[in-house]
Amino acid sequence: MDHEEFYNRVKIGDEIPPLEKQATLEGFQTPEIFGGIELANGSDEAKEKAMALGVDAIHTSKVFGGVFMLQFISEMITNWLPSPKYWVQGGRLFAKFVGLVKFNELIMCRGKVKDKTLKDNKNYFVCDVWIENASRDKVVIGEVQIPFS
Amino acid sequence: MADQANLTYDFFYIGQELPVYVHTVNAEEIDNFCKLFKEKNPVYLSDEAAERAGLPGRIAPPMMVRYYAHFQNVFKGFGKTVPGHSIHASGEYHFLHPVRPGDTISTTGRVIDKYIKRDKKFLCFELISKNMNGETVVINRHVSVWPK
Questions:
Q1: Taking CB atoms and an 8 Å cutoff, what residues of chain A touch B1?
Q2: Which fold has domain B2-26+60-146?
């Protein structure tokens, strides 16, 4: 679809296609991602890997990390847009963590267009975004702004 | 080391400059990040797909900022560590310029606020990451509930 056509077709109130993801343990046992700071369950293998990287502080977490959830929101946005270039060159994300996600829960990222606006000669989408846990409680609430011109 | 774990709430003050953290992003790290997050958008994996999308070549997923500019990594420059598990309260990211394999990213930052609310200690950091050409690639404002 032509990008201008996409912009014109999107209406305020439209839902962004949701994205379902699983809150896996894997990332928390990858010290390269967190600098070895957050390692769920502190598995021996992960601790050894972290120490080999020179990490000297290992803490454990029993809940799924915020960075993962923000990555999922970013993925939902780039799946929706005709090109990720709009998101990576001027996109803004604000997110607040309001609930917890347990490991292995299925979570759902959702979004809704709340405004289309012109600012500094650029068209913008402004969207509410949120993530629901397996009980459908909101665990992340936020907003994205995407320049689209 | 336990005696290094002294980046307590009281260590920080508003306006405090954080150490510079430098990291060169490579293609393998981008591959690993995408695999870990099951991120399948081809612009992160293929130059051709990225060029078709109007980008100069494959890029790093924007949230990879939490890899190459994680505030915990920035703290390594203090030679001290956080005394426990901090909780991510909120975050704001402004993505300004795509990061490509081979880009060297320098991240600087400062403490922009600290406060106690409902007996919880909050620290707010602003991290600014620039590439080797001096272009700002991302501005991140991060709020954590501090462990001690």
A1: 56
A2: Thiol Ester Dehydrase; Chain A (3.10.129)
